[in-house]
Records
---
Amino acid sequence: MSATFEPDEMRMQVSACPACVAAPSAERLAAAAAPRDARLMLSLPTAHCAVCITDVERELARHPQVRSARVNLTLKRVSVDAEPGVEAADLVARLARIGYEAHELDPDVLSATEADKRGRDILMRIGVSGFAMMNIMLLSVAVWSGAEAATRDLFHWISAAIALPTVVFAGQPFFASAWASLKGRRLGMDVPISLAIILASSISVYETAHSGRHAYFDAAVMLTFFLLIGRYLDYRTRAVARSAAEELAALEVPRAQLLRDGAEVPVPVGELVPGDLIRIRPGARVPADGEVVEGTSEMDRALLTGESLPVWAGPGSALSTGEVNLTGPLTLRVTAAGRASSLHRMADLVAAAECAKNRYTSLAERMAAFYSPFVHLTAFASFLGWLQVSGGDVRLAVNIAAAVLIITCPCALGLAVPAVVTSASGKLFRKGMLIKDGTALERLAEVDTVLFDKTGTLTMGAPEPQNLADLAPADLAIAAALAEASAHPLALALAGATRGMGVHPAALSDLREVPGYGIEGRWQGEKVRLGRADWVGASPGETTATHLQIGARAPLSIAFADRLRPGAEAAVAGFLAAGKAVHLVSGDTSGAVSALALRLGITHWHAGCLPAEKSALVAALSANGARVLMVGDGLNDTAALAGAHVSISPASALDAARTASDIVLLGADLAPVADAVRVAVLARRRIKQNFAISLIYNVVAVPIAILGFATPLAAALAMSLSSVTVSLNSLRLK
Amino acid sequence: MDALVYLIPTSLALGGIGLAAFVWSLRHRQYEDPKGDAERILNPEWDDHPKP
């Protein structure tokens, strides 16, 4: 999140704007330095086949300044190597001409290489331990089938030569994690794992040196191999979620139009300093906090406060980062930018809320807390028991203790959670949901109370006119004509609705838009106006409305309601049917909130909530023992999202809200949310089944090991059988 | 049992070749875009002569 505003991260774009090179400020001059080659990254959401690859690469290569372009179909991206001065917008337009949707990505936000390295690192260890496991297994088959004396010793020595370096190299992730948890005075799952691997290897070396019958080299390596696969699945789930979340963040390449000597120069937001004058065009998002110097307009604050009514802005008004300018161009004097801006202060609040949130203990951690002491105690007890029974035969006692440790080693337990989470998050990803956190599924399964935000979450933030039928056809024709002349969202919605009703716009003259107020024109010699209540002489109401004035007649008001997000009704109905308590919280007026609550059948609603009140509500519900799912998109929801047991935000949400939530909804449809809870409940059941399966294997195998009948063959069989059963059970997730 | 003198090194060497190939493919980023590579082979563009 913070990366989006980091000045260092912005430097890449400097070369994309040649005007910056002529910048007078020394700081900016240093930043711009020499023109660099443009390395651009575009996202290609619709690419899917060989033809797409060829089309896109050929079209981009036709651009005279593009050196090379390569499509990555797995990530649905194209990376372009070009000479300095190539703008991403050109390339996007080129691709749009041949029918491909493309979006610019900020290459600095995508830290793919670093994450990639860690994935390759685990893969390398899996490869090495897999190679070692297969070779040792071949040698072990010979021993199991009855190799004797010198031959057995030779095979054991060769196994040792392969196994020891492998264990040292491939086991490192476990040793490091076990050491970390021991230093923190905890017994994680990695402690018994590391102990079993080390003990199995050393006892086998000792046995081999003394021409013993049993060596557990195969078990030690197989353990490493299976557990590394679990680690890799775990890592993959998180990496996929992170790279998609990064892609969402990278889609917002923030630039501001800086006014310098009367000319507009596009600069990265990170380079703005207080005192700069910036121009904000209608439709643009405010890039920094500031005060309006020139121009009037209306501001949409829905994402920040949840208000659906636009707010008037003129010289002297203070604007915050993230608001959207609706009608007229504004000149803004920057008072705070980047880290100091209100958007960033809000993000810091969220970070604080997340730290304060008490840490959730996952199923795996609870299992480890119960299982690790059990394993250690059993192994130690069998060591003492055999020492007693055999009358001080340390070698025998250590051998049996090692066998107990190996048999009880949580091989299947290491796969139990990652395999289910991989399978479930893949399923939810296809439904359009992105799991950002490994334990989010478990927490989602426990939810009993659901809190919805209104503006932008249950509604699209797109208004629809409500009472057009009450207007006389002639008035409607005038309203349509006025509305068509403006780009204001209410006017656009009105024009769209009247066009849909087949209204022919009346002929008007002298049409002009008064930014911040409305549109004015002349109809048959009379002045007509469409706009804000106070401008046309009407009294402002509680709900979103625009007002029409014809000559000296009393103004007519046209009311608007927000359009519901597709699937909102299904999602709310799904939660109510599942017996969950559903609440609606919004910063909007009580009129708008109660109307929506009634429409969706939600009985608990809270209007006019400030961000702090929203998170206080979440805290109060949690204090009463409720497990709260928060669904929200605005900056005013972020503290509540961070404080809730589990949280979901749509992809259209602000960066800060997406960062604070555990699950991101990729499509516009809200319906998968209710289904996600069902999948989560199912996933938790599979995880518990997996635990049960691996426990059953232990219940059968442990007595055999304690009694001293366990052989390396039995250990190998128990380990691989339980791992395979657990993986198959995870794939059953529907 | 003399055969073991040749067979064990041979089997280890064969396995080692596999491991080396795997390490090479990881180092040379062969797993960056598995879906794209699967599709690229269907592309007829450079069928007649290699890409210059």
---
Amino acid sequence: MLVKVYGSAVFGVKATTITVEVNVDTGIAYHLVGLPDNAVKESSYRITAALQNTGFKFTLKKIIVNMVPADLRKEGSAYDLTFVLGILRASGKIQAENISEYLIMGELSLDGSLQPIKGALPIAIKAREESFKGLSFLNRTLAKRLLLMAWKFTVLKIFLRLSISSIKMSLLKKPKSIPAKNFIKTSKIPILILPM
Amino acid sequence: MPQRGHNIILVGPPGSGKIRLAKRLPSILPPMTLHEALETTKIHSVVGRVKENVGLMTQRPFRSPHHTISDVALVGGGAYPQPGEISLSHNAVLFLDELPEFKRSVLEVIPQPLEDREVTISRVKFTVTYPSSFMLVASMNPSPSGYFNDPGAPATSSPAEMQRYLGKISGPLLDRIDIHIEVTPVPFEKLSEEHRGESSVDIRERLTTAREIQVERFKENENIHYNAQMSVKQIRKHCELDRVSKELLKTAMERLNLSARAYDRILKVARSIADLESAENICGKHISEAIQYRSLDRDGWLG
């Protein structure tokens, strides 16, 4: 199955949207193509460990991950979450039909927790320009907890109150929690949609 | 009084309050506009330096790198391109303490971004442009021993030593600094005085008024927000001189041997001084004050 998820690459102070195509086929392999640098390539190790430690299994199939556009240098470790969600979706482990409406970025730890990423603001601005429905920065929130909470995302919420001085951009720390059990049953990703 | 965007150099013996003066600068600058705040936060976000509970930076940063800084750290670059100190101080203050102590190669990279207000870094694999509209504030001692020009201290540096010390700052860099201020040590009577000077809040208010005049002036120009950014064409338009001040400036140019750029800078500074007084036109006293701020250009500064 082919799935497209979206991430972002920051170059200078501008972000460019990166399409991550994930294809799952019969066979056993993992290929990451489309000019990723070393830190991006290392993501496979983090992904397998993080999935295992959060109760998922790495799909034993032929997985091809392609990053488009291929001529742009992609660097850093912030694509872990993009890949993980793409792989889970492509292998049918989760159902998230609307995944391509979001811009997903995040670095995974081996225990599944997420690390803050660099360049959050340019990415958020770009996501707004390209009218993504939301974006999934996880800011130090445990993905483990997220997984238990059935992939609930903390969404970077930008309030652009255009009044004279009170411009505030705040992180929505805790979205209204819905009992985790319900989600584990349906294994559906409830991506929180917030106005951006 | 320094205004937004004019570069300053403070010259004075140790302990005369140069750093103290420079550090107070962000407190008197007008608050950041939404556009400026976004621009500055973007750059800090790219290097991952925005504090977690801070959404948008509303305070103008004050960057003061140590003089051992390398040229790449200052302008940006590296295998994975990162913005340097000049970009991190975008829309804010870059303070270089002990200017002559910086490496020559580091000082040589400053003039171009100062002029263009952005820096383009080109390498084999990439070309990136970072905005770098910063206000340069530098401080230095007038001589290696530090006490030249201080009436109360013995002269311990020879003229040749001092010449060498000042020679470390290249002409092109000095030329781009609009305001040269000589700071003299504060005597005991003044230090212990009970009387308080004008507060930062009051000064900020005056500057904000001047700033508003400038916003009004440049409302049709998208890329220009304050006097220091004016192009030659705009200088002609907004800095018209009467006959007396023209004569004054001519004499100054000839006597002090000033460059064409210094001429432009004097006009810009004079315009800002006039704005502070909410004066419509630049007159003689504004020009003479602006000329006075170019003390390092003057021949025989060494005495």
---
Amino acid sequence: MTTQPTWLHAAVLGAFCTGFGAILALTDVLTADAIAARALEDKQNSLAQVIPPGLHDNNPVTDAITLTGEHGKPLTVYRATKGGKVTGVAYEILGSGYAGEIRLMLGVDAEGRVLGVRATQHKETPGLGDKIDPAKGDWITRFSGLSLDLPPKDKWKVKKDGGQFDQFSGATITPRGVVGAVREGLAFFASHRPQMVEVR
Amino acid sequence: MTTAFTDKSGPFTHAPTSVQSTMTTVLAALVPATLFDAWLFGWPAIFLFVVTIGSCLLIEAACLSMARKPLQPALTDGSVVLTGWLLAMSLPPWAPWWVAVIAALFAVALAKHVFGGLGQNVFNPAMVGRVAVLVSFPVQMTAFVAPHPLFSAGAPGFLDSLRITFGSGTLDSMTAATALGHIKTELSRGIPVGTSIQQVPDLLDMALGVHGGSLGETSALLILAGGAYLLWKRIISWHIPVAMIGTLFVLGTLFHAVSPDRFTGGLFHVTSGATFLGAFFIATDYVTSPVSKQGQLVYGIGCGLLTWIIRTFAGYPEGVAFAVLLMNALTPIIDQHVRPRVFGRTRKGDPLPIKGGK
Amino acid sequence: MATDYRTIVRDGLWDNNGVLAQLLGMCPTMAMTTSATNGFGMGVATAVVMAASNLLVATFRGYITQEVRIPVYILIVAAMVTLVDLTMNAWMHELYKVLGLFIPLIVSNCLPLGRLEVFAAKEPVLPSLMDGLFMGIGFTLALTAIGAVREIIGSGTLFADASLLLGPAFKFLEMKVSPLDSGVLVMILPPGGFLAAGFMVVGKRLLDLRAGKAIATGPAGHCV
């Protein structure tokens, strides 16, 4: 086999890169809108779990404001409005679990009552801490209807710490993290209520 | 023994020890602590003990017959009984029977026979069994009971005990966290060690063993006595236990002095958990620890260091089993690097220069 | 060389199975077999990429010079993976939500690259397509089997969430094998992957021995 000149290799590689680059660019253009639409739907679906659809006539995903959350980080607050009045808000809260942080979406109505809590991302032990997942148990649904004063503040803890929330057998740290996060999430609502429910 | 030829060793060597006599001595050293634990935790612990050793023997027999090896020598030399015994001592005393069976399956079939049987295993079988069930059944494996001494008021009777081990006895009301577990959970919700350590048994109780824990975690002093007996009988040398306990003690004391709210003290580390059981009976396993004395020192220090790191920073409250397994994996490398000098050769393996010769 | 499609099919499905004989693609094998459904999904996505990239390489093999073939192969596999990723995200979104995590991982699988180098670079288009397809199907079968073993022992279920992946018609596949809430968790944690895969390889070799076949030791997996 005769040795081929270097420029030939470069040309071959370059041609393939250009060709497949073009194909990928074309695919991206074709799919970009659809993917964006899907991402929006996903967000809506996950918000629908913490804000009942009957509560709003707007689209909470697009009607979002940004507040300064704890530790100075920006926090996106999705707002549900009906007839121009804010009926509920949803925002992300963080709890510390057994294996890293637990991300939760918390929905609160205008009076500060919990509409719903859902874990969006966690790394808890399968079969043990992952019972916070609604697919694996209804533990997470017990927050609905509660507020900062119901139960009283010293009962906003897991039973092991003297509060009223059950832990799961064998796992205390996960429920403790979630209960604490919801409690602080409600406290955040209480302290930022004017900004959250004011109508623009 | 009727003929010399049935002996596995070369017929020209004679040593006062054999696998059988070594194992018998080790088992004898474990007897006092085991009897104490049997008294402390009552019938369920005794049942669990029997189930664990029984299933280890059965699985050993099954593996041997699958490999078409003779059953008798391997079953009677005591090694598999020791595996089962140590495994039973590392389980919570009131664990259900199936936890013991699965642990035995992992220990004997996977950790020992997959690697080729006695003497071939890389990892300590009992600890593989314990870690496998610890990871698999966190609920059952962390349900430690407070002591219910045999025949005392409140201790479960014979039939109730059968139900605890073989039925589905839920014991939520009777559980008591281990000292290490309690301090870890409290620390995770921001309670400093100085406060939570008040709520665990004091050092004397820890040493005597009247507190919750695995069978072998409780009676530290009796385990220590067993370990001393093994040292005296020259079954084990001092290198691994001293290096391991020493490292744990030094690290504990040092960091406790720096920040008493975050770190528990050295004496607490030494008397709590499975430190003594691990240091004298588990880390010293001939098959899975280094051969040379220097190697054993390195290995012991490694065990102590890893135990301290896992207890202090990792998710699990007790780290002896993990530490021993991790150091088991390093044993071949340690042996490679601290190889004793061969007689008549330098450390690199070249022949020594002949003195006076040219 | 006359093409023997029977051999290609046999090689892909059993004799030279990507996972059980060649021990290639261990990264997705370990990471994605926590359930039979996950293993199946990963396998199917890989099979599609393998068939497509084998086809492309066999088509262009006359133009790819020896010195730059590896970069070109990787380029082709990566482009196929991205293509599948984008298309599924846009038009098969329910499936994508289940598989989305796995798809980028296919690039790190050296089974596709291995088949390009060993087969597609030397053989005509149609046999190459068949090879990619059946190697992919063999990979899928192995991953599904390993996933099933781990899932049954580890979680006490079989084909959990299959209806999410395959559509509601496949709801009948979802089974609960064990009456307990959870199983031997270690099997769905990383050690379980090694245990299950190891015993599968042993099982295959035992069956081969019984059948009187010499054990073909494939190339050792040099990459993950």
---
Amino acid sequence: MEKKNLTTMQARNMQDVTTASKIMGIIVKIGVYLFLGIMALIVLFPFYWMIISSLKTMDEYRQTIPTFFPKVIMWSNYVNAFNTANLGRLFANTLFVGVVSTGLSLVITVLSAFAFARLEFKGKDAMFGALLATMMIPGELFTITNYLTINNLQWMYTFQALIIPFLVSVFYIYLLRQNFLQIPNELYLAAKVDGTSDLKYLWKVMVPLAKPTLISITILKMMGAWNTYIWPKLVANDDAHQLITNGLRNAFTDASGQVNIPEQMAAVAIVSAPLFLVFLFLRKYIMAGVSRSGIKG
Amino acid sequence: MVDNKHQWKAWLYLAPAIVLLLVFTVWPIINTLLMAFQNGYSANLALAGKTFSFGIENFRKVLSYKRFTDCLFNTMILCVATVPISTMLALLIAVALNSIKPLQRTLQTIFFLPYVTNSIAIGMVFAAMFNIIGLRPDGAMADTWGIINNVIMFFGGEPVNWMNAGSGYWPNIVVMVVYIVWNALPFKILVLLGGLQSINKQYYDAAKVDGTPRRRVFSKITVPLLSPMIAYVVITGFIGGFKEYSSIVGVFGETMGPVHDAGRLNTMVGFIYDSLNTRAHGTASAAALILFLIILAVTMVNLQVSKKRVHF
């Protein structure tokens, strides 16, 4: 009897505690959502400002009291921006460099990752370790010599100067090797017994199984071409080879004269749009790739 | 298993990667060391037959340049300001995101958006937000104060000349810090949230049974178990910070500073590239090696600190 009393008392106490903590929990929840909401607005604000500014007339943009929605929507800003910055040409150049370097890079990465994951040869571990060690070194250290190499090869102002030095990424080889290693070796041995060649096995079995990693690599590589700035500026900053980022910055940099900011913002929006579209459709792969790489672009 | 035929084949598979790495990675490492330790080296003069004596003159020269020490100072300031701020904010956001269910994925996507941007392009948007148009010489009137100043004035503050002609050094730095933090958040949130979601729920259940207050749960469970991830974002943050360059080009343009003081915000990486234009390849290499050593040292210190404090 006594024991039963005790348990009901405990239960009542627990109930008080839970209602108190429930109220506390709700307050905390509201606080959490408020905090996240404000931070989300801050994060989104530059995008909002870019879009509404890109649709204003210059006069409206220059008003002392800013408007938060354009009075007259100026779609023509986009047309002007496209022409002023010669965006068509820049898009074509960037797409060409992006597609070619991604394609070649994938082939090289798949072949090397396969060698490291499945084939046996002397000095394999030592070589893989040496490759990983180069990842420690900042790219800026290579740039000076690579610039001289490109110059000596007479590749200045060519597309190969933009593509070839960056075809091999140790990180991508590492990523894909890890993925290949997860595929059971028995599959490989069975294929060997059947007389399947290595290349055919690689193409028919391993590549399809490693598809998510390959997609991540493709996206990161394309984003890289879209965002690269320093190297193209050094080796191929002429009209015929200029990439999107360099063209964008140069077209509207005019220290003395007036910069038409709405048109500038329209150009920025045009350049940002493909990245957002890719992100919208391939979010999963991008986030998976990024969390493992830690490098932007 | 290891027969000669296989050996030969493996090298064939690796050949393209090895050739490219030898030319564009291994040779640069060797050549940078060679150039850095030849006094006053310039590749163009070397090609013409000039020889250079070995020594550490390049390093001494670089470190004595005021331009270089200014770049070093800018880089350090940006690192020291942005890494702690962005890490703390990202941690708060990640913990908050982890504690909610509805809207979690939507908010997560929103917080990731700054990552999928072009840092030059969005830098131009930030410039527009801070930019004052039509500022009168006395500084009291302008056509447009810029949206940031509008917000400050709305709350009763004084407008600041952030980045226009006549702006001060620290306002310039504030603009850059705001932009860099905004840009650095997505990656850090992604990594920290991933870490949070992999923490075993049992720890939290145990804390709940014991009635542990939230703050204590945060400092005694969440942070220690998340410490490897925190160490990771801090280290990558410092490495990225020391290589800061294109975000400044995005906001300030290739002048790397406000119009009246070009180059004021130049960084280590900017210094290295400028040396390419003056064909001072020896000093550029020395500067690149110094950058490498700084990054190495910072990483080592971080790893040492983590060793003591990180619970793996």
